[in-house]
Specification:
Length: about 270
Amino acid sequence: MNTIEIKNLHFSYNAGEEILKGLNLTIDERSTAIIGQNGAGKTTFVKLLKGLLRPTEGQILFNGQDISKQTVATLAKDIGLIFQNPNDQIFKNTVLDEVMFGPMQIGMSKDKAKEVALKALDMVGLKGTEKINPYDLGLSERKMVSIAAIVAMDTKVVIFDEPTIAQDYMGKKRIQAIMKELQRQHKIVISILHDMDFVAETFDRAIVFAKGDALLDGDVKSVFKEKDILEKAYLEQPYTMQLCYELGYKEAFLNPEDFVAYKKANQ
């Protein structure tokens, strides 16, 4: 099983202003959502995982190996990061070239890179767009191109930064399906999110970041039950949970399907 162990992780951009304050976590193959207000340290944390930043103290162990001092290029075969804004990631003139670029950079032949790129584009719903310039696509589709570009690299860890931005209902469902498929392939799936309903419907585990530390960590339902602690982190419960509590139900329901199943079982 793939694991990431975080041991006493500290990080500062400026001396005396710690962004991360001694994090200790183990991330496994349960899909994991990292939630918290802006400035809580979420993006800094995933940049450290990807090697874009270096810890000021502590270790990041991937499958037992300390990766905290490895380069982005070295980590590229194992850890993929899908940027929040696809415009920060996309630079090629065709969709196919964009998705082939990463696989070729980690040593795949051109033919193999094309094969995995076409599979990834099919997975994200962009089959038939291979010759289109990515910037002729809408923002939601460009997001799918950026996802395909990382999926094609077949990394053991896939990190999504705000994947649901600019996505409609069907787009969110497709991203959810992609994450579930990656999890079935025994990959570590991590995502930074502000969409609590998507977290409730998609993830096994949630970690609440606040002021550079993990305020809560557990299965999604257990985390979202902690209303008072969530409020300290300036987070809200999923809408279904909020509504059912207002209606007087003591049971926690993460989504409408949970509530409907409960009602049918208790008729």
